[in-house]
UniProtKB/TrEMBL annotation:
The chain crosses the membrane at residues 20-45, 65-83, 90-109, 115-134, 155-176, 182-199, 243-262, 282-303, 310-329, 335-358, 370-393, 399-421. It holds the Pfam family MFS_1. It comes from the Bacteria. GO terms for molecular function: transmembrane transporter activity. It is a multi-pass membrane protein. GO terms for cellular component: plasma membrane. This is Sugar phosphate permease. It is found in: Cell membrane. Residues 23-425 form the Major facilitator superfamily (MFS) profile domain. Keywords: Membrane, Transmembrane, Transmembrane helix, Transport. Its main location: membrane.
């Protein structure tokens, strides 16, 4: 190995923890701000000045604003997956983050539906770098017995972002205007770009803060627990021929279509059908994401301890179905608010652990490409979620039909999780 870090040759008596502070932490910040960027539209769809200024009318149009992001996000992940494997996570991240910062500036300047659609499309392409980059870094920087904790750490940014962002966006939009929310998020994205470039490197051997003890620990523990180490994991075509890859993709797709379909319209649903005020609906959503942080940390710890992931995915899928059904058919706004918090609290965790299971079928060498294909398929399916809910609600005057349709996908996730448990995942 050609070690570019001189500290590797002068080990101290204590192992460094560079992988957590210099890799997991910047990824956590990136996912936090990226989620604020993408969730911005969910709150603004319940903001009357935003709808009036851009001439947005009808839930199908609202759903399309979320779906266009998911379509470009999907194809972006496919392209970025191969780019990350080709030029590395660091350079790929620089390009992607800069692109999504530009998209937020464009959104703040939008004066029509077409302009905001372009902003959402470019945002999807830029943010498409995140999962291939993060999975590549996790695969390179963390031993297998820490990968679930590492992934739930940075994946928690998807929950922390709305916890901080939803109330903030609602307050900024109500006090100063919706355009200001875009410009503030663009500035935060630039800060993230600088932080990422300073702290992160493609692999531990190249990092200025890693000592030899940490490097040896990472490398000696990346193949444990009976995980296959055959050459098939190093070949993209061989991984794509694996049935387990496609089962994991279907599980992730099923959870993703439910998450994006529900989260896009939940603030509007609480405001329009449950009579909850605009800012309060944002606070309820933020409360759900706060709960999601606790759920993910606990699930990541327990799944690493027992080296079992699928049982947590299946359990969460079952509870999601129960909480959603009770929420739809209660007339009490307080009960609906509590159930919404519980629902959001569980919607995130299955996706993070499903991605962790992906490490069992692909090696670090091809993780960028495989995660790009994985994400592309999943988010193309997820793009249907907001449109399904929007179409159902526009045709029937109620969100119930669309939400129930999404629960069919969650039921599929539950069924496949039982199969994965039996296979030892």
């Amino acid at each position: 190995m050609n070690n570019l870090n001189p500290q590797l040759h002068d080990p101290s008596g204590k192992m460094t923890n560079t992988r957590w502070f210099f890799t997991a932490f910047p990824l956590l910040v990136l996912f936090t701000v990226s989620m604020m960027d993408k969730a911005n539209i969910n709150i603004l769809l319940a903001n009357k000045p935003f709808l009036t200024d851009l001439g947005i009318d009808g839930n199908l149009v609202k759903g399309t604003l979320s779906s266009i992001f998911l379509v470009t996000y999907a194809f972006g992940q496919l392209a970025w997956g191969f780019i990350v494997d080709k030029i590395g996570a660091l350079r790929s991240g620089f390009i992607g983050i800069a692109l999504w910062a530009f998209a937020m500036v464009l959104g703040g300047m939008a004066d029509s539906i077409s302009a905001i659609l372009w902003s959402r499309a470019i945002l999807g392409i830029g943010e498409g770098v995140l999962y291939p980059m993060a999975l590549k870094l996790t695969s390179s920087w963390f031993p297998q017995n820490e990968q679930a904790k590492a992934q739930t750490t940075w994946y928690n940014g998807n929950a922390i972002g709305p916890v901080l962002g939803l109330p903030l966006i609602a307050i900024i939009a109500s006090t100063y205007g919706w355009r200001e929310s875009y410009f503030i998020l663009a500035a935060l994205s630039v800060v993230c770009l600088i932080l990422f470039l300073i702290m992160t490197r493609d692999n531990p051997a190249k990092h200025y803060a890693v000592n030899s003890m940490e490097l040896n620990y990472i490398q000696s523990n990346q193949k444990v627990g009976g995980t296959p180490t055959t050459a098939s994991k190093d070949n993209v075509k061989a991984v794509l021929a694996s049935p387990m890859f496609w089962i994991l993709t279907i599980v992730y797709s099923s959870i993703s279509i439910a998450y994006y379909g529900i989260s896009t319209f939940l603030p509007s649903y609480l405001t329009e059908e449950k009579g909850i005020a605009f800012v309060n609906s944002a606070v309820i959503n933020a409360g759900g994401f706060a709960l999601a942080i606790v759920v993910q940390v606990l699930a990541g710890f327990l799944s690493d301890r027992f080296m079992k992931r699928a049982i947590f995915v299946g359990g969460a899928s079952g509870l999601i179905i129960i909480f959603m059904l009770f929420s739809l058919f209660t007339a009490n706004s307080t009960v609906a608010a509590v159930l919404s918090i519980l629902l959001i609290g569980l919607l995130f965790m299955p996706a993070a652990l499903t991605m962790t299971m992906l490490h069992r079928v692909a090696s670090p060498e091809v993780m960028g490409s495989i995660s790009g294909i994985f994400g592309c398929v999943s988010y193309l399916i997820a793009a249907l979620g907001p449109m399904v809910v929007g179409l159902f609600s526009q045709m029937s005057g109620s969100y119930n039909g669309g939400f129930i349709a999404l629960l069919c996908f969650v039921a599929l996730s539950l069924f496949l999780s039982v199969f994965l448990v039996r296979k030892g995942y």
